[in-house]
Design a protein that fits this description.
With about 180 residues, the protein is an alpha+beta fold. The protein is about 50% helix and about 20% strand. The N and C termini lie far apart (about 85 Å).
């Protein structure tokens, strides 16, 4: 888009063409996401720097790094290590299922005795995100996402709204008591 504008302005030269080409290449390198693939017992992450493969049926460690952009780092008993963005698992349930199944097999074998608690925490998060997505698609979150006046939570009654509590129910009780005396 910018090259035709530069050419129309009459400022397009060989040096500027190399500049535009370099900027396009840099943008491609920065924005190209890693490709994550998995099969029975393995997971591979392919980037421009190369490919890393880890045996998911022989995991010895799993940890989540970062705050804003969280990454999952997996390490196996053979020394293989792979890391990738957690959003990949959120966007691809089949990949998450494959990783979870193999990690469970690894934990059941317990050959190495190292806990994989990061995967359990991640499992809870993915289940929560999946439930949110299902509720959103089914139209059930419109009520839950909208803030209520006074900070009330939908579907939850406050103590004053129940029987025996609050000013309104006390008034009703007094009225009922007065009506019974007449």
């Amino acid at each position: 888009m910018l090259v035709p504008v530069d050419a129309a302005a009459g400022t397009f030269t060989a040096a500027r063409a190399l500049l535009w080409l370099g900027l396009a290449l840099l943008l491609f390198l920065v924005l190209m996401p890693p490709r994550v693939t998995a099969g029975e017992g393995w997971l591979a992450v392919r980037t421009l720097r190369g490919s890393r493969r880890v045996r998911t049926d022989r995991l010895v460690a799993a940890r989540v790094t970062g705050h804003a952009c969280q990454r999952l780092v997996l390490r196996d008993a053979l020394g293989g290590q792979a890391d990738f963005d957690i959003q990949v698992l959120l966007a691809n349930p089949a990949l998450w299922h494959r990783l979870g199944t193999d990690a469970q097999a690894s934990a059941d074998g317990d050959r190495h005795g190292t806990p994989l608690s990061a995967l359990h925490t991640l499992s809870d998060r993915i289940d929560r995100e999946t439930a949110r997505a299902v509720f959103k698609v089914s139209g059930m979150t419109a009520e839950a996402d909208e803030p209520r006046p006074g900070g009330a939570t939908p579907g939850v009654r406050s103590a004053s709204a129940g029987r025996g509590g609050g000013r309104r129910s006390r008034r009703r009780a007094r009225r009922a008591g007065r009506a019974g005396r007449r």
